[in-house]
Structure formats: structure tokens, C-alpha cells
Amino acid sequence: MNTATQNRGILSALYEGRISYIRFWAYIGMMLGATGLALWGGNGYNEDNYLFMLVSMQGLIWLGTGGLLAAGAAIVASMVKPGVLRNTAAAVMVPWFDGGVLMVALMAALTVFEPAASAVSYLDQSNLFAGKVIMTMNVLLLFSSICYIAYLFAPESFIGKMATLTAWLGVYAGGSALLLRWYESYLLLDGEIGHAPVSNIYEVFILLFCITTVIYLQWERRYDAKAMGAFVMVLVAAGVFFGVWLDSVGQGEIKPLVPALKSYWMKIHVPLNFVGYGAFAVACGAGMAWLFRARLEVNGSSALLRVFPTLDQLDQLAYKSVAVGFPAFTLATILGAAWAAEAWGGYWSWDPKETWALIVWLVYGAYLHVRVSHGWHGRTLAWWTVIAFLVTVFCFLGVNMYLSGLHSYGRLA
Amino acid sequence: MHTFKDHFKTFLLRLGSMTLAIVILTVLALASVIGTVLLQNQSQADYLQQFGPIWYWVFRSLGLFDMYHTWWFLSLLGLLMASLGVCLWRQIPRILKDMRSRKVTLSESAMKHMKHIQHWQADQLDSTAFIEHVKWQLNGWSFREDSYADTHYVRADKGRYNKLAYILVHAAILIILIGGWLGVQYGFRGDMAVPEGSKESEISYLKGTSTEYMKMPFEVQCNSFDIDFYPNGMPKEFRSNLTIIDQGKEVLTSDIIVNEPLYYKGVRIYQASFGDGGSNIHLKLFRMDGTSDVAEAQARVYTKYKDEKSGATLEITDFRPHNVENMAEADQPKDFKDLGASVDMIFRASGVKPVKVRSFIDPFVLEEQNRGSFFQISLSGDTKEFQPFALGLDFSNEKEWLLFVAFVKHLAATEMKSPEDSKMAFKAALDEVFPDGKPDNFKDMAVRVMQAVQTIPRLPWPFLPVLDDYDQKYYTGLQVASDPGMNVVWIGSALLVIGLYIMFYVSHRKVWLVIKQHEKGYSISLAGMSNRNPLNFDREFHDILSNLDQYTRTFGKGDAS
Ligand code: HEM
What is the ipTM of this complex? Predict the structure, then answer.
């Protein structure tokens, strides 16, 4: 046995069996603890303070208790009924959770580079460090998308590996930059404006890049669909340029929250929504890859064809992406309605953002029906994913730019 | 012969068809787009101006200005409900039957059509142990076994309830729509503005494009209203202390903030907004008639003040205790500064076009230098078009005004030719206003007075209304709502999410193990299928296979085909 396989042995042991199962439940318990802290901790939920509540003694108690209780329950369950150890949910989810923990660790390490408290100010945020990490993410993601395109033409070279590696690094840079930004928001104005980095269009864009890339990478890992990366990452790259522009017009600054956004709902509703958007973006990438391959087949250019997944696989991947996005988006919309019910007294107001969310939902709902009922596959559905994504883009960008309503916090100046 | 019954059956078939579902979903989506592009529930005059008479008439007849409540939009939702209902009613029995039937056997011909299948031959086989091993391998699956002649069948199912998801999802949407309908039918939602120290029991709401009122079964009293600001002037948190008064009795007192409503007798009271609740404003009117007369004016926000002497009126429209502005240049770090309290008023005087004036209580101080008082003036009356107007004088110091008037008087007496003249005039004015000696800051005053001579005469008003003092009072803007359908909607939502989860993440997988005994030994077949997510099942079946493959090596002759 050489070292490589030995390493793999250790790694896979971490992701199989009892260790993985217990860790899975420990993570779930910690999340429940964090939720409990938000709902019942301290003197009630306070957005200005939540991050510090998490890392305080109190947070430690809530998260620790949740984690330990759940881990204990998992140990008992795995003793009583060893069959649960072959539960696939744990094996699938634990790497994601571990990735999250790694991001937190990375963020903690990055705080070392943060300028002294006396050197940062709300009025001039240019020397905060998260901005630099975001720039790194931009560069990595752009580089990755170029590599993915190059990979189509040189599949045997190391370029493909570079593409995947830089995409992963980009995700980690983006994720830890967002966490760092969360921390930074507490450095300003004596912690008065601290809030999770999902409050304006610039922040959620970074989130969107990370989620889109991660979902794509998951498909790449599981289904070996690397040629699709060129299409997905080009979408991400376009987003990166938009993000840079947003920053250049002052949208990148950390700003205080209006009272309506000070709610734990924001932290659930917004990220979940972007799981939906990200998955729809990946579906769009798969649809574009489908159309591209169909065109290649007509022209009979075989060199490129060999790299591409088959039309059927691409069709399946688009569907799988919608299958990830649709439930997430549905849940996010419902949670948005629950929040609206709590903040505004009504779960549905036909506000433009809500209505467009409904439109997006209906469009993807129709997509799912068309697939089942008419056995439509291929071209129509590939176009459907592309056009439906344009509708989605209008929902999260266009509405903020062109229509007014209650969601005006996302407005572009 | 088509009887009525046949027609009805075809009709139901069509109504519950997926084609109709797709059409309804698409039409609903398109209709919703109209409602977001065309701003809803604006004033009719605005629409008329925007679209011109013809389009205004067309849009109005289609109800597009309150589209989500038009008969045709509601009918569309009704059609969706009908379609869902019929579809469920037809599918439920079929699905339940489908779920219960678990045929154990698998025919040769069915096996031929399976995408996932594997055969082994074995000389000798401990079939009990082998089946046990397969069952261990398929942990969490449910099994059925049976033997027919020389063949033993094991059928394993996982995610059998996947088909239930169809029922859950569609029923959930129906439930949500019903909950929405209940809310519309039996609920209400409106706004209530309660000034500090006052009571209110009526809410107002929009019906179509007109405002309607409704009485609540209790009164809401606002005891106090507090607001915190961020350094950039954005409101950070606002909080009302409310008392509910039911039939003259105080029953409940509580604080509410945004996101934390109050609940009383099935009605929720939300903190929604705030505004001026009729603050008391004290103004000084500096007359521009050459006298040094300063009149005092007392008025409340939302009322009019009439100056008897000049006939001019001031309509007080708003009061703001803080005006935070970014004083930095466009590309410089921000520099927020509170310019202090201000009052907005519409100034009407004979011979002058009405203008909107925002008058500030404090003079403008920049780089620690007092640059005198200022107004913001909007000629159109639109607050977005306020233009700053520096007055030069610091009106918070009444002596300065006297100095100015005296200076103008003395200046008029000279020939106003040389700078010497104005120096002399200023000296004379100083002596007149400050007979006991010059104040320390007279040099600054001189600069401001000189400036005021240039600016103040440009205003054609009978007097300058300057904010002098105030007694502030907020109103709290409450949203009051009751929605008996809300819990139904939440139940439907929960079912929807659960249903979608099952639909997309739990596929119904079936695996058959067929062990056939013949003279030379055993032939073993493993077949599998999944009703969705084929990519995943490819892997899953492959995993099962490769595991069994190892096991079959122990049979001796592991001849996989
Ligand atoms: C207008 C009434 C509707 C009818 C008659 C209808 C009918 C159907 C039928 C017959 C199926 C196929 C079930 C199967 O064989 O697996 C289906 C699937 C489905 N329906 Fe509906 N439906 C309606 C409305 C909706 C709505 C409003 C939604 C939500 C957007 C929805 C979501 C779904 C989903 C997610 C599937 C599963 C698609 C898949 O298998 O990938 N349906 N519907």
C-alpha cells in the first residue's frame, strides 16, 4: 500500500461509518443550538449582536449542548441499530458541513490581517481586509472559467485540474470573505451595525457565486461532467464583473440594516433563496451545454464532442439542478412569506419581488410538468432552462433595478 | 351517442390534465408580470396622465390597476384549484393502489427490458445466507419473498411512498389557495396612525384604488414612541409603547418594534412606520419691510398659520428633528453631519408663487465657522427639488438681525459709493445695536452681515420664517391585520415542502433477486429499477453489484455476465 491509497483510506474513514454519522448529527445539533440561541437566547434575538452571541460563553453553551446531545443520541442510535450507519444522508452532507467549518477556520485565520481597530472606520472602509479576499475570489473564479474553456480544447492537459482547483479555491475565498465581512461589520461604529453579510445586493452576489460554483463542482465530482463547467463558470464570471462594478459604485460598503431586516429570518430566507438561484444557474449552464453539443453534432466536429457529456446526461443534469433548486426556492419563498407575516402583517402582498418569485416558481413548475407529461426532452427543455434563468435573473436583479416595492433594501442607487 | 355523462367525463379529464396545468401555470406567470410592470393601486389621475385617455380606458376596463383582485385573475386561481382538485380526485385511488401492489415475481420478458440487470452462475449456494447478505446490504429496504416451483424471488423496495409526494404537493397547493381565500374572505388588513398620547380605533385600507375605513373592536393608545438613529441618519430601531383599551378598560400594555408584533383578540398589531404626529412649532418671522420687527408664530404640523399683517400663510407640512447629510465630496470618505431640526412649510403670499421652504433651526457650521442660517427652497413644491439657499445671517442670534437692519438703514443714508461708506455704516450700526461695546465675535458678524446684504433682498417674501423652537410629537404607523386563513397556509406550506423533498430526493427503487435452481446449480439474477433520478440509481445499483460480486466469488464459479 503506498501513501496515496493510505491517505485515501484515512480520509474515506472520516467520511464513512460511525465517525461520519456522529459528526453529522453533532452538526445538526449545533445548528439547532444556534437556532435556539436566536429564538430564546439572551434578552431575545438581537441582530446587532448575534455573531458575538454565537462566539460568547452563551453561544458556546447553546451550540455545545446541541452538538453534544445530538452526538450522544447518534452514538446510542448507532449502537442500538447499526444499520443507520449506512445512512447516505450523513455521507452526503458531512463533507459540506466540514467545508463550512474549514471556512470558519480560514476566516478566523484571516482576521490576523485585519487592520487595528483604530485604523478602521465606517466612513472609510477601504482598508478592511475582506475586500482584498473578495478580489482574490474574483481573480480565482475568472481564472477558473478561462481554464474550463481551455479544457474543452485540451482535455488531456493539466488545465482541467487547474480549473477545478481554482474553482474550489474561489469558493473558499468567497465564503471566508463573507464570514470575514460579517466579523468586520462589528468593527465599525462600535458594533452598532453588525449583521450577517446577506443584506445587500453586493453581498448576496458573492454568495451566489459560491453556491453556483459549489453545486456545479458537486455535479462534476459525482457525474464527471467537466465540459459543463465552461458554461456554468462563464455565467459566474459575468457575475464577477457585475460585482466588481457594484463595488466601484459604492455598493460594496457595509451599511447599517433598516429595522425590517433585523430578523433571524433574513439569515435563513436569503441564503436559501440563493441556493435556488444558484441551482437554476447551473441548470442554465447545463442547458447551454446541451444546445452547444447539439450544434456540434450537426456540424460533426468530433474533437470537442469527445469531451462533452452526452445530450442525455446534460438533460439529466439540468433536471437534477432544477430538482435541487425548486424545493429550496419553494422553501425560501415560504420562509419569506413567514417573515413578511411577522414584519408587515401579511404573508403575501403582491409586491413586485414576491410576484416575480412566484413567476420564477411557476416557470420552473411548468418545466417539471412538461418533462413528465409530454416526454419533452432535449431542445425545448434546454431552451426552457436558459430562458427560465433569464426570468430568474430579472427576479433578483431586474426587480431591484426597475420595479419598486417593499424589498427596496436591495435597490441600486 | 354522446350522453351528457360522457361529455362531463371528458370535461373532467381535460380539467385535470397536465396540459391544462401547464397552460394555467404559464398564463398565471404572464398575468403576474403585468401586475408588477404596471404599478398597482395608484391614483387614477396619475394613470390618466401616464397612459393618455385611450389606454387608460382600456387598462381600466381590464382592471389592470388592481389586477390581482379582478374577476378574471381570481377566476384563473379558481380554475387552478378546480384543476388540482379534479387531478387529485382522479389520481389518488390510482396512486394508493399502485403503492400497495408489490408483485414479487419478475417475468423473463420483464427482465429482458430492465436496464439494470446482472446474472451469475453458481455450482453450490447457501441461499439462506446469500439472501441474508443481500438483505444486510440493502439495509432499510422493505422485502417480500416467495417461491414458485424452482425459483425463489426476493423483492426489495425503498422509497415506496415517493408517489405520495405527488398527492402531498398538489394537495398542499390546493390547501394554500384555500387558506388564501379564507384570509381574503374573513380577514382584514389596514393601517392606523396613532399620535403620541392619542387613541385610535379605525384602520384604513385600499379597496381597489379607493380608501376605505373599518372600526376595530378596541382602541389602541400610543403612550410613547422612541426612535434610535444610526450615525448616517438611518433609523435603527423604532419602538412604540401601546395600550389596548377594550370597552373603556385598559387591558394590555406592551412595547412593539418592527418584527415583533402585538397580538390581541385574533388581531395582530405591527410596527410599520412613523411620522410627525402634529409637533408644536415655534417660528420667528423676520419682517422684510425695513423695520426690525420680529413676529412670533405658533403652529402645529399639518395646520396653517396666517400672518394677519401681510396676509401670507404658512402651511406646515412636516417636521424633522434630525437631518443627517454626507458633507464629503463625491469620492472622499463619507462625513456625516447632523444639520439639526427643520420644518417644512408651503409659503403663500400675494404676488409670489407658492414655494416649499425647509427652515432649519441652526446656522450652518463648516470647519468650525458659522456660515449663517439657511433655507432649502423648492420652487416646484417637490421635496426632491430642494435647493439650498444661504441667508448669510445667523438668525439664531436676534441681535445679528438688528445689526443687519441697522446696517441697511445706515447704508441707505450714505451714497453707497466706496467701501469706506459701508465701513462707516457698519460702525454706526454696531454702535446702535451694541451701545455698551462691541461683542467679541463682531468680525464674524461683519462678514455675515455683508453677505446677507447680497442674499436676503433676493427673496421676494414679506418675511423670513425661521424655526425657533419645537415640541416634538411622533405618530406611530401601525399595520393592523387579522387573517384566519394564515395557519391553513402554513399547514399547506409545510406539506408542500415535505412533498417536494420526497418527490425529488426519495425515489422509488425496486430490486429483485431471482434465484433459479437447475441441474447444474443455480442461476442468480439481480435486477433493479428506479422511478426517477437514474443517474443516482446507476451508482447505487453499481455499488450493490460490486459488493455482491465479491460475495459471489465465494460461490466458486463466479461467472458474471
Ligand atoms: C393545475 C393543476 C395541476 C395539475 C392538473 C397537475 C398535474 C400533475 C400531474 C398529473 C403530475 C404527474 C405526476 C406523475 O405522474 O409523476 C404532476 C407532477 C408535478 N406537479 Fe403538478 N399539477 C398541477 C399543478 C401543479 C402546480 C401549481 C405545481 C407547483 C408548481 C405542481 C408541481 C408538480 C411537480 C413538482 C410535479 C413533479 C414533476 C416531476 O415528476 O418532476 N403541479 N402534476
Answer: 0.88
